[in-house]
Amino acid sequence: MKNILFVCTGNTCRSPMAEAMLKHIGSEKFNVKSAGVFALKGQSASIHAQQALAEKGISIQHAASPLQEEIVMWADYVLTMTNDHKQAAVHSYPEYKDKVYTLYEFVQKSSKNIADPYGGTLVEYRETLNEIEQLLRELNNSQLPI
User: Is residue 91 packed enough to be buried (19+ CB in 10 Å), middle (13-18) or exposed (0-12)?
Assistant: First the structure.
């Protein structure tokens, strides 16, 4: 089993949705956690993130965690939602830079970022979750060297 850490800004939208989704579809291959580069410890996932996941039959019990060295050490791969998150993680923990990628970079070798739905509508959260789900299904079904 590989340890995957998802990272976004506040650890209330994208990374918790990615964590919950990969736990749902890849539990036999992955241990999964999430964190945020500017997270306030203990915040729950946003209501729209919870609703978008619930519509797919996924429940989430989440408390935000700031990105810290021990969780980066735990991870085999740190998958960020944007290049800015990647740069923040590498800046904070340069000794682990070889295991930090954006989710798009890791799965599709693309430089795309996953847009932040924070403050947006439920429709925007659904769109973000669908984008994340597509990437994670690709990851789960891939023959990537993970």
Answer: exposed
Active site residue: 8, 76, 84, 98, which one?
8
- Catalytic residue list contains 137: no
CA-to-CA distance for 104 and 144, rounded, in angstroms? 13
Enclosing domain of residue 136: 2-141
CATH number at residue 108: 3.40.50.2300
91 falls within a domain? yes
The pLDDT, as a whole number, for residue 144 is 62
- Tokens describing residue 13: 């939208």
Q: How many domains does the chain have?
A: 1
Identified catalytic residue from 13, 14, 76, 126: 14
116 in active site: yes
Is residue 76 flagged as an active site residue?
Answer: no
Instruction: Answer whether residue 146 is part of any domain.
Output: no
Give residue 90's identity as a one-letter amino acid code.
V
Q: What is the pTM of this model?
A: 0.97
